[in-house]
Design brief:
Strand content: 5-15%
Largest sheet: 5 strands, antiparallel
Shape: globular
Distance between the termini: 31 Å
Number of helices: 20
Low-confidence stretches: none
Mean pLDDT: 85
Number of strands: 7
Helix content: over 70%
Number of domains: 2
Radius of gyration: 25 Å
Order of helices and strands: HHHHHHHHHHHHHHHHEEHEHHEEHEE
């Protein structure tokens, strides 16, 4: 089987997804590196205390950006362009409103919030300074990140990458310039604000681009429609966003727990562990989000062959990266601590021991993280949400506090991999229980086993007549009539005649007993769909542009 089209789309979306995850999380990591080097450990502890608030930006991006994007793509796959645009519009509007409300709350109540977050006498002034420009970051980073989600799946992944690169590069450069010149903690959040603002300005190019397929529509702003759309989008986006929500709760509880048990050294150490996790999860979450963009298209069409191929690639890449990072931490932890300037400080040995134990979490977390996003993409929201609660909040708290009481401070850092291992076991048992009620599915990824034998995939090119002949012969074997086969062959002719040489066409044929579905995807000229429209009777088949693919659905009912 040739996976040329699926692989090319996966690669095309992967880099922007990785950069998007990096943009949402890396700014606080970079800030930690610089404030640790130029100000000291108390400054790193201050950034950690603000982490629950910073994580809310990720929550909004997943809740409204990822949730809206999944439904928008599904609507396109169902050839409902107006519905797709309604979700895009609502997604952008509600992202702006939510981030604005959060910015206003922080602006007027930062002092009591700093106390509530557990600031000590040493860290509170630093918390207040760092939050100086954090309010503006809420709005500009949320809007830029959500909009980039749509740009990424609107056949402009390179431009989405550029937007994210601009934000991060400017933040890194200005962090060094500001902090090395003695401007203090406030300048770290100022650097992030400037970087995201300029990236948002770049996004205006997409808004003015006439070729974009996501558009603002007024119908989405009608009160009843807006509320209904927002509710559906939130429900779909919640499982992924719940990881961020529960992270906020968990980090807050952990900060209070560490403050009471280990003091500021515990907060500093936990910030270092969180920074390593952010770096490790760039690949993990980035690949999961890439799958989340592609899975709705293939799963809705029951294209399980391509789906299983993409899942295998995703697991292979994430496991290898997790192993490499874990080995690096065990072999040379001093290299990471050097980024904070902690190597020669008294806390070095304590931090090194902690990050080694904590790093065992990376490998075990690959599967549950991917499955939480995958179940969200196939709209099994309840399962995804329950697993998110267990994986992100409930089990880590139980394991960390329980093991601390049993073996001391080492139990805190070992609690994370132990909780993740328990999550994997619960996922397996939960899926088995569900599939007893729904026996048509098999495996962790809910593949309809009865459809496997009824499905055939073909990949055609303009110079591979054998593959085309094989496809047409298969249709004839399914007892389709001559007119149907002739129309399919004519569709191939129009596609190849009006697209560049070497265009790949992926054909999925499914025998549903009462009808035969032919689903065609190809990454060719957009104008080609207009040629198809003029060469066939109106209503003969459905077509749309989805994820940069031209897609065609042609169905023949059996008599």
């Amino acid at each position: 089987m040739n996976f040329k089209i699926a692989d090319s789309k996966f690669k095309e979306l992967l880099i922007p997804s990785l950069l998007l995850v990096m943009a949402l999380n890396l700014s606080s990591v970079v800030d930690s590196f610089f404030v640790g080097s130029f100000i000291g450990p108390d400054a790193v502890a201050a950034v950690e205390l603000l982490e629950p608030i910073i994580l809310l930006m990720t929550v909004f991006e997943w809740l409204f950006g990822l949730g809206g994007q999944i439904i928008s793509i599904n609507k396109k796959s169902e050839f409902d362009i107006d519905g797709s645009n309604r979700y895009f519009t609502a997604s952008m509007v509600v992202s702006f409103l939510a981030s604005l409300v959060m910015a206003i709350v922080c602006l007027f109540f930062m002092d009591p919030l700093a106390t509530l977050l557990g600031s000590s006498h040493a860290t509170k002034p630093l918390v207040m300074q760092y939050s100086t420009f954090l309010y503006g970051c809420f709005v500009v980073s949320t809007i830029a990140s959500v909009l980039t989600q749509y740009i990424r799946v609107d056949d402009q992944p390179n431009f989405a990458s550029l937007v994210i690169i601009v934000a991060n590069v400017i933040n890194i450069i200005l962090d060094y310039v500001f902090l090395s010149s003695g401007m203090g903690m406030a300048s770290a959040s100022l650097a992030s604000f400037i970087g995201y603002t300029l990236s948002l300005v770049l996004c205006l190019w997409y808004i003015r681009n006439p070729k974009r397929t996501f558009r603002f529509v007024r119908s989405a702003l009608e009160i009843k429609t807006f509320l209904k759309t927002t509710w559906k989008m939130t429900k779909v986006g919640f499982p992924g966003a719940s990881m961020g929500i529960f992270d906020v709760i968990f980090v807050y509880i952990m900060n209070r727990f560490l403050g009471l048990t280990l003091g500021d050294i515990g907060l500093t150490t936990y910030m270092v562990c969180m920074d390593i996790l952010v770096i490790g999860s760039i690949v993990d979450v980035g690949i999961s989000e890439t799958l989340t963009s592609i899975v709705p298209v293939y799963y809705a069409k029951h294209d399980y062959l391509n789906l299983k191929h993409l899942i295998r690639i995703s697991l292979l890449i994430t496991v290898i990266c997790a192993i490499v990072l874990t080995v690096f931490i065990w072999v040379w932890p001093e290299g990471f601590l050097a980024l904070y300037g902690f190597n020669q400080m008294e806390i070095a040995d304590f931090v090194i021991n902690a990050v080694k134990l904590y790093s065992l979490f990376f490998i075990i977390s690959v599967l549950p993280c991917l499955l939480i996003f995958y179940y969200e993409a196939i709209e099994r929201s309840a399962l995804s949400t329950v697993l998110s609660v267990l994986y992100t909040l409930a089990l880590p708290l139980v394991c960390v506090i329980g093991l601390y009481n049993l073996i001391g401070s080492n139990g805190i850092w070992l609690g994370f991999p132990v909780s993740c291992l328990l999550t994997v076991i619960i996922i397996y048992l939960s899926v088995k229980v569900i599939q007893k009620r729904e026996p048509k599915y098999s495996g962790l990824f809910f593949i309809e086993k009865d459809l496997i034998d009824k499905t055939r995939n073909f990949v055609l090119t303009d110079n591979d007549l054998n593959a085309r002949e094989e496809c047409l012969n298969h249709l004839k074997n399914l007892k389709t009539n001559d007119e149907f086969c002739e129309n399919v062959n004519k569709i191939f002719d129009v596609i190849f005649d009006t697209n560049p040489h070497g265009t790949y066409v992926e054909v999925l044929v499914i025998d549903y007993d009462d009808n035969v579905h032919v689903d065609i995807k190809y990454d060719g000229e957009h104008e080609n769909l207009e040629h198809l429209k003029h060469n066939f009777p109106e209503g003969l088949f459905k077509y749309a542009e989805v994820l940069g693919f031209n897609t065609i659905e042609y169905v023949m009912d059996k008599i």
